[in-house]
Every structure is written in structure tokens, then in C-alpha cells.
Amino acid sequence: MKVLLLNGSPHKNGCTHTALSIIANQLEKNGVESEIVHIAAKPVRGCSGCGTCKKDDKKRCVFLDGGVNEVIDKLESADALIVGSPVYYASPNGTVLSFLDRMFCAGSSYLANKPAAAVVSARRAGTTATLDAINKYFTINRMPVVSSNYWNMVHGSCAEEVLKDEEGVQIMRVLADQMAWLLKCIEAGKQAGINAPEAEAKVTTSFIR
After folding, report:
1. Which residues in the chain come in under a pLDDT of 50?
2. Disulfide engineering: 138 pairs with which of 22, 41, 143, 183, CB 3.0-4.6 Å?
């Protein structure tokens, strides 16, 4: 079992990475492998809605910048996903939103039915709005959303301050425990012959009358 963790902060080893590292360490204690991928090293262009990825059997984005396709490659074999982002103006980092738009558009078939969670980092406020924005990517794609004992957030202006946020650190540990437990339950279900529900063909309607 493997969890892919995406670090959406421009600061590779900052607050968001600290939160994700706590999760990764706790997953390891539960016998679950993890990998942290830094997705915000450079600006990422947004989705243009061209639809090319839907016509491509490889399910990849036509734009080659930002490492989106490389992460989709990793999602094929990953069993779960955690997305971490700092709070910018009460919202996820713009790079995270552009990345997720393209990743979910092109790679959605590798995401359905895999547990997911959002983790956010802030100095003070905007955390719940940021969590809400990221969680919507999961709930549109039949991904079980994993919870902790409070909303998945840490606070601090630097990595050292995050480690002093005792409640936030505990939230990350509990989130990892919950993720590991759910992954093991899913695996046990597969071994017992219980598979994920078969997807219905998507029905789309318009509000235009």
C-alpha cells in the first residue's frame, strides 16, 4: 500500500512539507509506504478545457509543463492521495488549483475509489475555505475523504512553529492512522471479494431551459 502526498507550497521544506512529513512518518509506523512530491517548484499553467486528455487512451495532459503527467504516472500505482497546500488569500495556492484542475481532468480514472485527504497550513485564518476547495476535487470523483479528530490544518509562520502546534501535529498523526486503517480495510475487502461499486455512465444536465 502506498500513499502519494503532494506538497503544493513554493517552499519545498516549509510548513506544508512539515505537516506532510508528520503524516508520512506516521504512515510508516502503520506499515504503509508514502512518497512526498513537490508540485509547486515552478508556475503551472491552468487547464484550457481542450478535451484532448479525454480522447487520449493514455489519459495524460496535452501540456507538458509542471510535472502533471509525471504525477499521473505515480497515481496509477498509488492507493491513496493527500494534497497539501498553504493558504493564500483564504484559498489554496494558485499553483495547486491549476495542478489539480489538470490532474483530475486527465487522470481521473486513476483516482476513483482511492481514499484522499486535504491538508492545509496557515499563519492564522482561511484554512476551512482552503480545505473546502481541495475536498471538492475528491468528492466529484468518488474518492472516500479521510478525516482526523479536527479539520486537517496546522498553524505557524515557519516549520519550527508548526512543530509547536501540538494540536495540529496530533491532527496529522490521527489523519495518517485513519488513512492506514481505511487502506487496510479496503485491502481486506478485496481479499473477501468485495470490490468497488461499478461506475454508472455519467448523466449531465443543463440549467438552461
Report:
1. none
2. 143
